What does this fold into?
Amino acid sequence: MTALLEKAFHGWLGSFKPRLRYAKVYLNYPLIYLRRGLSRIRRNFSNRIFQILSSPLRMEILRLL
It folds into this structure.
């Protein structure tokens, strides 16, 4: 009885393991895309801030010159 249960359990685990690997891969894709998107957004944001900060500074420098 226990041997039969063990066999069934190992069969279930065997069928589950590849699925787990696929699930990991599928879960990794959105994470990668999210990270890429976030870095792009952060880059755009910092560029925008730099432009906003540099434009008054540029005006001041031009006025000083």
